[in-house]
UniProtKB/TrEMBL annotation:
This is Interleukin-1 receptor type 2. Residues 1-19 form the signal peptide. It comes from the Eukaryota. The gene is IL1R2_1. InterPro entries: Ig-like_dom, Ig-like_dom_sf, Ig-like_fold, Ig_sub, IL-1_rcpt_fam, IL-1_rcpt_I/II-typ. Residues 154-228 form the Ig-like domain. GO terms for molecular function: interleukin-1 receptor activity. Belongs to the interleukin-1 receptor family. Keywords: Disulfide bond, Glycoprotein, Immunoglobulin domain, Receptor, Repeat, Signal. It comes from Liparis tanakae.
Amino acid sequence: MVRLLLLTVLLLRAHGAPAGPPGPAAPALPMEGGCSVAPPEDGVLRLQGEAVVLSFPMFESRLELLDTASLTATWLIAKDDGMAEGGAYRDRGRVQQRANQLWLLPAQVADSGSYTCMYRKRSVCVSGSIRLRVVASRSAAAGQLSYPVGVVVGERLCLPCPLVRDFNHTELTWSKDPGPTPSPAGSFRQAGVCLLIPAVRRAHAGAYTCRLRAHIDDRQYEVSRSVTLEVEGEDDEDEGAPYR
């Protein structure tokens, strides 16, 4: 059940969650500087040189509960150590504010820090925050860049490429670290952002990386995600291993 829940979370992060029924009324938020302050987002860890999109899903969900969302509202995203280049982020340049998201094209180590997203509409002001850490290499992240997924031998697995729904991922490819993904007949199949494994075996355990070329403003940027597949159980001795 826990493994199924973890995989469901990754799928929702890859594709987006479906709309559900209205929830209970939101509790009152704390105030700071005349603005209601939403709980901070989960921190984000990304690689230097890749395209990065900072979103504020928890913040936006609180706005929906407060019923304050509006096309006429003003959104402002700023880094906590000062506004970008002397003013608000614009919709051009390496770092761009696009509505309620911040796009880093590409991200640099110096972009690391805390960011605040502020929503204003007449007398309503709500703010949220997120912390970004950009590392120069995967080795500098000490394994923290990987999303763990647990499965049992024999399961049919759709392994999703997490958090890529903001990008054009028509050129997405998978590899099993440290080299290219072995692909004997029937062992692997790619479907959209998922790597399909019809019947998981012990040999499938390990680290996988999905990479895509994101097309943004007539330029290409690399985006990658790592997933660690942890396999429980023993192979059926009557079946051959999918690869060696």
